[in-house]
């Protein structure tokens, strides 16, 4: 043991190479034969293994590093390196990816003729058809959606038969069958083929292999509701309710809401009240609360109406406050995020939900306010107080404005004005709305100064209020300043491009300024928004007429009478245009239709009588001139025309009696005496001398009257003959037998402005709505506040949404 201990030399010099010849005897291979432990290990089972070819082996029998075994050098590590193969000793290059072996063999080709492959392709095609059907339905092409659904159904049946031939029935794809049948039933229902839809739904419901198919009875109940079969609708709704577990709370609430709506349809308000009260106690929502108020209103329970209104007010909106979308700092990253979410889909949904809640509350308040108290004013005050104490504080002012509108409906204008004037000291938004309505009221009363004053107040309170700007433009329009009015209308359109009143009024303004091309552009734009507006259609036709394009005017008037086929003014205008084009037959058709709907239009009666005279049917013209004499009994010309028609048709005795009757009513009519003298002379009656004497006396008095008129003037103007109730010059030509004969021109003169269907140069009457065509029509600017005044007090019942499975 001490032999391995080396003492430090006594000398100070260190031996740098000492110890290099020393070694561990364990590694001495020459002495292995004398190693007892090694020889013992060789004699054991480990040592009886097949002899190794290596010349030197370790005590574990493993080849040494770098040793050659089976022609391959052992790697330098315990784990074989990537790419190290037996070929390394043969001089081969390093090829870890095996690129030297060439391209991979081709894949095995699919057998497209195999039954499994055909089934897969057919199933893929069925899924594509179902998707195409759904897409077509969402795009509004219901017919194409139904065709795709039917095609999917046919291919799915072929698929089932092929699967039954190849595999066992258990391998049939039930989900695909369910989706195909459900889509087909839904498309039948969308196309109002209710019998086929019910049959298809029955196939699904009766098949026990479809799980949760019982909930489709809701859809069947919806179909029965559309068919007004309310008893069956309730039956199927209740069956669906029984099959839906209580964990599906939202779906059960929707079904109960549909049951309540169906009870309202049948007049079973007590049952409807039970349904809606249960909903409001379990999961209150806006529609159920509003329908509960309707039910209580139907049974006349005042106290319950108040409680239901309070429940409706208390329904949570579950939306974020507007302060969330206001940036609290100048952080650009935060500002970008707020700007991105300010008008995203979620924000739009929140706005829609809030607007719907306000609509329900406003409608409910207008509905119950007149009946919950002794007077509607007290009822409105109660509703306003309840709203002020809720989350809908802003609606209180709108209710006050509706209170003023209710006063207007009751013709109590003073109270309406007083109510609206209360808002002059409120915030700018409410002040602007109240001032807009006040401006509208004064405008209707032709008090343009007051209207202009309140229009200015509305504009100053809210410069971006399009209704206020429109009313201000109307007051300027009424004063004749069309250029300035156009500027106000343009500003209203810049603030709200959907303000149809401003767009219509600017078209009228351009027409007054004789800028017909710009006026036509405005009315054509408005036509794209209001497709069936009779006013817009007439204005387009009128502009084309002013542009001397009668063919386009006729085309637009044809569209107008397709919207209002009984408008006598539009029909007479069509007759006038066809008459100016020389088409008498078409003109007669439309004039006759106009006369049939409104037999008191003098111009139409005159044209029809003249038409029959020109076509030598004087007997038919008599009835039109007789009607004209009834409408204007003080006008002698119509009675003269009746007598002339009798004379032209050869009935001289009837003509003589008619002239005598005219002479008794109008003894100073010269034309009547001339005809009497002529007829009495031709027939040989003794009264001819009497009528001749009267005629000479009247002609002499006429000459004296004309001389007095002539002498009373300075001579700058020529003599003007003045005859009371004189007939037309055509009637006077009948005095001579050799004259061309009495003839009334069939060509109509242009209609006066106050007789045009929708317009006039008069600004005295203001009305924005389409006026009854039986009377003179006035063209004027539309008043923006008219929409607010025309709102109905009561809205229709809100029905629950159809419940369709997703």
Automatic annotation (TrEMBL):
Sequence ranges of Basic and acidic residues compositional bias: 706-725, 779-790
Parts of the chain that traverse the membrane: none
Biased composition (Acidic residues): 791-806
Region annotation Disordered: where it falls in the sequence: 1-28, 40-68, 93-117, 706-806
Statement: the UniProt record of this protein carries the keyword ATP-binding: no
Chain positions of TPR repeats: 214-247, 253-286, 466-499, 500-533, 534-567, 568-601, 602-635
Function: Positively regulates primary cilium biogenesis. Also involved in autophagy since it is required for trafficking of ATG16L and the expansion of the autophagic compartment.
Protein name: Intraflagellar transport protein 88 homolog
Species, as recorded: Canis lupus familiaris
Upper lineage: Eukaryota, Metazoa, Chordata, Craniata, Vertebrata
